[in-house]
Amino acid sequence: MPTGQIRKALSGFYYVKHDGQVYQTRGRGNFRNRNITPLVGDWVEFESSNATDGYVLEVLERKNELIRPQVANIDLGVVVTSCVKPNFSYNLLDRFLVTLESKQIQPLIYVTKMDIASDDVRAEMTEMRAYYESIGYPVLFSEAGEKDVLTDYFKDKLTVFMGQSGAGKSTLLNKIAPELELEVGDISEALGRGRHTTRHVELIELHGGLVADTPGFSSIEFLEIELSDLPKQFPEFLEASDYCKFRECQHLKEPKCEVKRLVESGEIKQSRYDDYLQFYEEVKTRKPKYNKK
Fold first, then answer.
1. Which parts are annotated binding residues for Zn(2+)?
2. pLDDT tens-place string over residues 23-65
Protein backbone atom coordinates (compact mmCIF):
# COMPACT_ATOMS: atom_id res chain seq x y z
CA MET A 1 0.00 0.00 0.00
CA PRO A 2 1.61 3.32 -1.05
CA THR A 3 2.43 6.04 1.49
CA GLY A 4 2.29 9.71 0.52
CA GLN A 5 1.95 13.18 1.99
CA ILE A 6 -1.14 15.39 1.80
CA ARG A 7 -0.04 18.58 0.05
CA LYS A 8 -3.47 20.22 -0.20
CA ALA A 9 -6.96 19.69 1.22
CA LEU A 10 -9.95 21.25 -0.54
CA SER A 11 -13.70 20.61 -0.74
CA GLY A 12 -13.45 17.13 0.75
CA PHE A 13 -10.56 16.09 -1.48
CA TYR A 14 -7.02 15.35 -0.29
CA TYR A 15 -4.19 15.77 -2.78
CA VAL A 16 -1.54 13.21 -1.91
CA LYS A 17 1.98 13.32 -3.35
CA HIS A 18 3.71 9.99 -3.88
CA ASP A 19 6.77 9.28 -6.04
CA GLY A 20 6.58 12.64 -7.82
CA GLN A 21 2.89 12.36 -8.71
CA VAL A 22 -0.14 13.98 -7.05
CA TYR A 23 -3.26 11.86 -6.49
CA GLN A 24 -6.72 13.27 -5.81
CA THR A 25 -8.29 11.23 -3.01
CA ARG A 26 -11.21 11.23 -0.60
CA GLY A 27 -11.16 10.30 3.08
CA ARG A 28 -12.25 6.89 4.21
CA GLY A 29 -15.86 6.75 5.40
CA ASN A 30 -15.03 5.69 8.95
CA PHE A 31 -12.70 8.64 9.65
CA ARG A 32 -15.61 10.69 10.98
CA ASN A 33 -16.62 7.92 13.40
CA ARG A 34 -13.01 7.64 14.57
CA ASN A 35 -12.78 11.45 14.99
CA ILE A 36 -9.94 11.68 12.46
CA THR A 37 -9.54 14.66 10.15
CA PRO A 38 -6.64 14.34 7.71
CA LEU A 39 -4.56 17.54 7.53
CA VAL A 40 -2.19 19.05 5.02
CA GLY A 41 1.26 17.73 5.96
CA ASP A 42 -0.05 14.35 7.13
CA TRP A 43 1.64 11.20 5.93
CA VAL A 44 -1.04 8.75 4.84
CA GLU A 45 -1.57 5.31 3.40
CA PHE A 46 -3.80 5.48 0.34
CA GLU A 47 -5.03 3.52 -2.65
CA SER A 48 -5.70 4.89 -6.11
CA SER A 49 -6.52 3.36 -9.47
CA ASN A 50 -5.71 6.66 -11.23
CA ALA A 51 -4.62 10.24 -10.49
CA THR A 52 -8.14 11.53 -9.80
CA ASP A 53 -9.87 8.66 -8.01
CA GLY A 54 -8.41 7.36 -4.75
CA TYR A 55 -8.97 6.95 -1.03
CA VAL A 56 -6.96 7.85 2.05
CA LEU A 57 -7.06 4.67 4.15
CA GLU A 58 -4.99 5.59 7.19
CA VAL A 59 -3.42 8.71 8.70
CA LEU A 60 0.00 7.94 10.15
CA GLU A 61 1.01 9.29 13.55
CA ARG A 62 1.69 13.05 13.65
CA LYS A 63 4.49 14.72 15.54
CA ASN A 64 2.44 17.94 15.88
CA GLU A 65 -0.32 20.02 14.35
CA LEU A 66 -1.50 23.62 14.23
CA ILE A 67 -5.05 24.90 13.87
CA ARG A 68 -4.22 28.09 11.94
CA PRO A 69 -2.89 27.29 9.44
CA GLN A 70 -4.25 23.73 9.56
CA VAL A 71 -0.99 21.88 9.01
CA ALA A 72 0.57 18.77 10.58
CA ASN A 73 4.17 17.62 11.02
CA ILE A 74 5.75 21.08 11.06
CA ASP A 75 9.51 21.45 11.54
CA LEU A 76 10.05 25.23 11.42
CA GLY A 77 7.89 28.18 12.46
CA VAL A 78 8.96 31.59 11.14
CA VAL A 79 7.68 34.23 13.57
CA VAL A 80 7.38 37.48 11.60
CA THR A 81 7.42 40.57 13.82
CA SER A 82 7.87 44.21 12.88
CA CYS A 83 10.14 46.59 14.78
CA VAL A 84 7.86 49.59 14.01
CA LYS A 85 4.35 50.17 12.66
CA PRO A 86 3.21 48.13 14.59
CA ASN A 87 5.81 48.49 17.31
CA PHE A 88 7.80 45.47 18.43
CA SER A 89 6.18 43.50 21.27
CA TYR A 90 8.18 41.16 23.50
CA ASN A 91 4.93 39.79 24.88
CA LEU A 92 3.55 38.81 21.49
CA LEU A 93 6.89 37.34 20.39
CA ASP A 94 7.07 35.21 23.54
CA ARG A 95 3.50 33.99 22.96
CA PHE A 96 4.50 32.63 19.56
CA LEU A 97 7.71 31.10 20.90
CA VAL A 98 5.95 29.34 23.79
CA THR A 99 3.30 27.96 21.43
CA LEU A 100 5.92 26.65 19.00
CA GLU A 101 7.99 25.14 21.82
CA SER A 102 4.91 23.34 23.15
CA LYS A 103 4.44 21.76 19.70
CA GLN A 104 8.13 20.84 19.30
CA ILE A 105 8.45 23.23 16.34
CA GLN A 106 11.80 25.01 15.88
CA PRO A 107 11.18 28.79 15.91
CA LEU A 108 12.97 31.38 13.79
CA ILE A 109 12.42 35.09 14.47
CA TYR A 110 12.23 37.41 11.45
CA VAL A 111 12.12 41.17 12.13
CA THR A 112 10.58 43.31 9.36
CA LYS A 113 10.70 47.08 8.56
CA MET A 114 14.28 47.51 9.76
CA ASP A 115 14.77 49.93 6.84
CA ILE A 116 12.52 52.51 8.54
CA ALA A 117 13.72 51.92 12.12
CA SER A 118 15.27 54.76 14.14
CA ASP A 119 18.73 54.36 15.68
CA ASP A 120 17.13 53.70 19.07
CA VAL A 121 14.91 50.97 17.67
CA ARG A 122 17.84 49.41 15.81
CA ALA A 123 19.82 49.36 19.06
CA GLU A 124 16.90 47.68 20.86
CA MET A 125 16.54 45.07 18.11
CA THR A 126 20.28 44.34 18.23
CA GLU A 127 20.02 43.79 21.99
CA MET A 128 16.91 41.64 21.52
CA ARG A 129 18.70 39.53 18.92
CA ALA A 130 21.71 38.93 21.19
CA TYR A 131 19.50 37.64 23.99
CA TYR A 132 17.18 35.43 21.93
CA GLU A 133 20.06 33.92 19.98
CA SER A 134 21.77 33.15 23.31
CA ILE A 135 18.79 30.96 24.28
CA GLY A 136 18.75 29.15 20.95
CA TYR A 137 16.50 31.13 18.59
CA PRO A 138 17.88 32.29 15.23
CA VAL A 139 17.02 35.97 14.57
CA LEU A 140 17.09 37.56 11.10
CA PHE A 141 16.55 41.18 10.12
CA SER A 142 14.83 42.28 6.89
CA GLU A 143 18.00 43.77 5.46
CA ALA A 144 20.09 43.09 2.38
CA GLY A 145 21.98 39.85 2.79
CA GLU A 146 19.93 38.65 5.75
CA LYS A 147 16.57 38.04 4.12
CA ASP A 148 18.29 35.76 1.62
CA VAL A 149 19.55 33.62 4.52
CA LEU A 150 15.96 32.79 5.53
CA THR A 151 15.45 30.36 2.67
CA ASP A 152 18.55 28.39 3.72
CA TYR A 153 16.49 27.13 6.67
CA PHE A 154 13.81 25.58 4.42
CA LYS A 155 15.82 22.59 3.22
CA ASP A 156 14.32 19.23 4.27
CA LYS A 157 11.79 21.02 6.52
CA LEU A 158 8.09 21.81 6.54
CA THR A 159 7.85 25.53 7.33
CA VAL A 160 4.93 27.73 8.36
CA PHE A 161 4.82 31.53 8.77
CA MET A 162 3.03 33.34 11.59
CA GLY A 163 3.19 36.64 13.41
CA GLN A 164 1.51 39.85 14.45
CA SER A 165 -1.06 41.59 12.25
CA GLY A 166 0.53 44.17 9.98
CA ALA A 167 4.03 42.73 10.31
CA GLY A 168 4.22 41.85 6.62
CA LYS A 169 3.84 38.05 6.61
CA SER A 170 2.11 37.92 3.22
CA THR A 171 4.53 40.43 1.70
CA LEU A 172 7.47 38.33 2.90
CA LEU A 173 5.96 35.13 1.50
CA ASN A 174 5.43 36.79 -1.88
CA LYS A 175 9.02 38.04 -1.95
CA ILE A 176 10.35 34.58 -1.15
CA ALA A 177 8.14 32.91 -3.74
CA PRO A 178 7.02 35.30 -6.50
CA GLU A 179 6.26 32.15 -8.52
CA LEU A 180 3.94 30.86 -5.77
CA GLU A 181 0.70 31.59 -7.65
CA LEU A 182 2.13 29.93 -10.74
CA GLU A 183 3.02 26.81 -8.78
CA VAL A 184 -0.42 26.63 -7.19
CA GLY A 185 -1.96 26.99 -10.64
CA ASP A 186 0.25 24.29 -12.08
CA ILE A 187 -0.74 21.77 -9.45
CA SER A 188 -4.45 22.54 -9.88
CA GLU A 189 -4.19 22.32 -13.66
CA ALA A 190 -2.33 19.03 -13.50
CA LEU A 191 -5.23 17.62 -11.51
CA GLY A 192 -7.72 18.82 -14.12
CA ARG A 193 -9.62 20.97 -11.64
CA GLY A 194 -8.66 24.45 -12.80
CA ARG A 195 -7.82 27.32 -10.46
CA HIS A 196 -9.49 27.60 -7.08
CA THR A 197 -10.13 30.94 -5.44
CA THR A 198 -11.22 29.30 -2.15
CA ARG A 199 -8.78 30.04 0.66
CA HIS A 200 -7.05 26.81 1.55
CA VAL A 201 -3.65 25.70 2.76
CA GLU A 202 -1.23 24.21 0.28
CA LEU A 203 2.36 23.08 0.70
CA ILE A 204 4.69 24.53 -1.92
CA GLU A 205 8.04 22.98 -2.75
CA LEU A 206 10.57 25.75 -2.12
CA HIS A 207 14.34 25.80 -1.64
CA GLY A 208 14.55 22.07 -0.95
CA GLY A 209 11.68 21.99 1.55
CA LEU A 210 7.94 22.59 1.89
CA VAL A 211 6.36 25.92 2.84
CA ALA A 212 2.70 26.51 3.74
CA ASP A 213 1.44 29.07 1.23
CA THR A 214 -0.65 31.04 3.73
CA PRO A 215 0.39 32.82 6.93
CA GLY A 216 -0.91 31.60 10.26
CA PHE A 217 -2.45 33.16 13.34
CA SER A 218 -1.64 36.68 14.47
CA SER A 219 -2.85 36.31 18.07
CA ILE A 220 -2.59 33.42 20.49
CA GLU A 221 -4.49 32.01 23.43
CA PHE A 222 -2.96 29.19 25.42
CA LEU A 223 -5.70 26.60 25.07
CA GLU A 224 -3.65 23.41 25.30
CA ILE A 225 -0.63 24.10 27.51
CA GLU A 226 -0.86 22.80 31.08
CA LEU A 227 0.43 24.82 34.03
CA SER A 228 3.05 22.24 34.94
CA ASP A 229 4.41 22.32 31.37
CA LEU A 230 4.52 26.10 30.92
CA PRO A 231 7.96 26.67 32.55
CA LYS A 232 9.44 24.01 30.24
CA GLN A 233 8.57 26.10 27.17
CA PHE A 234 11.17 28.73 28.16
CA PRO A 235 14.57 27.20 27.26
CA GLU A 236 16.55 29.35 29.71
CA PHE A 237 14.12 28.46 32.54
CA LEU A 238 14.43 24.78 31.70
CA GLU A 239 18.22 24.96 31.83
CA ALA A 240 18.23 26.89 35.12
CA SER A 241 15.62 24.64 36.78
CA ASP A 242 18.26 21.92 37.39
CA TYR A 243 19.59 24.22 40.11
CA CYS A 244 16.25 25.09 41.73
CA LYS A 245 15.66 23.64 45.20
CA PHE A 246 12.43 21.94 44.14
CA ARG A 247 12.29 19.57 41.17
CA GLU A 248 8.95 20.88 39.84
CA CYS A 249 9.65 24.52 40.73
CA GLN A 250 7.17 26.89 39.11
CA HIS A 251 9.53 29.87 39.62
CA LEU A 252 6.91 31.87 41.52
CA LYS A 253 7.32 32.10 45.32
CA GLU A 254 9.45 29.02 45.92
CA PRO A 255 12.66 29.51 47.94
CA LYS A 256 16.08 29.04 46.30
CA CYS A 257 14.69 29.35 42.77
CA GLU A 258 17.53 29.61 40.26
CA VAL A 259 15.30 31.24 37.63
CA LYS A 260 14.39 34.12 39.95
CA ARG A 261 18.05 34.49 40.94
CA LEU A 262 19.06 34.79 37.27
CA VAL A 263 16.28 37.32 36.63
CA GLU A 264 17.55 39.44 39.52
CA SER A 265 21.12 39.23 38.23
CA GLY A 266 20.01 40.21 34.71
CA GLU A 267 21.07 36.92 33.10
CA ILE A 268 17.44 36.09 32.32
CA LYS A 269 15.63 38.95 30.62
CA GLN A 270 13.06 40.64 32.90
CA SER A 271 10.52 40.86 30.06
CA ARG A 272 10.70 37.08 29.59
CA TYR A 273 9.95 36.49 33.27
CA ASP A 274 7.15 39.09 33.27
CA ASP A 275 5.60 37.38 30.23
CA TYR A 276 5.92 34.01 31.96
CA LEU A 277 4.00 35.34 34.98
CA GLN A 278 1.26 36.73 32.71
CA PHE A 279 0.99 33.50 30.70
CA TYR A 280 0.90 31.49 33.93
CA GLU A 281 -2.07 33.51 35.14
CA GLU A 282 -3.85 33.13 31.78
CA VAL A 283 -3.44 29.36 31.79
CA LYS A 284 -4.44 29.14 35.45
CA THR A 285 -7.66 31.12 34.96
CA ARG A 286 -8.77 29.89 31.53
CA LYS A 287 -12.21 28.36 31.33
CA PRO A 288 -12.37 24.59 30.87
CA LYS A 289 -13.34 23.32 27.43
CA TYR A 290 -16.31 21.01 27.18
CA ASN A 291 -16.71 18.59 24.32
CA LYS A 292 -20.03 18.94 22.55
CA LYS A 293 -22.00 15.73 22.46
1. 244, 249, 251, 257
2. 999 998 888 888 899 999 999 999 998 999 999 999 999 999 9
Which overall architecture, per CATH, does domain 3-62 show?
A: Beta Barrel (2.40)
Tens digit of each residue's pLDDT (9 = 90 or more) over 119-174:
999 999 999 999 999 999 999 999 877 878 999 999 999 999 999 888 888 888 88
Closest CA to 44 of 67, 66, 25, 68: 25
Q: Any residues with CB less than 8 A from the CB of 100 and at least 6 apart, and which?
A: 77, 79, 106, 107
CA angle 204/207/142 to nearest 5° reads 100
Q: Give the residue ranges of the annotated binding site.
A: 112-115, 163-171, 244, 249, 251, 257
Contact 142, 112 (CB under 8 A): yes
What SS3 string covers 69-124?
CCEECCCEEEEEEECCCCCCCHHHHHHHHHHHHHCCCEEEEEEECHHHCCHHHHHH
pTM attached to this predicted model: 0.89
CATH 1.10.40.50 fits 230-285, yes or no: yes
Q: Which residues contribute to the annotated binding site for GTP?
A: 112-115, 163-171
Q: Domain 66-212: give its CATH code.
A: 3.40.50.300
How many C-beta atoms surround the C-beta of residue 209 within 10 A? Answer: 18
The two counts, helices (H) then strands (E), for the chain are 8, 13
Query: Which residue type does 146 have?
Result: E
Please state, in angstroms and rounded to a whole number, the distance separating the CA atoms of residues 69 and 251. Answer: 33
Separation in Å, CA 20 to CA 7, 51, 69, 111: 12, 12, 25, 35
Q: Where in the chain is the domain with CATH 1.10.40.50?
A: 230-285
Which run of H or of E encompasses 184?
Answer: helix 180-190
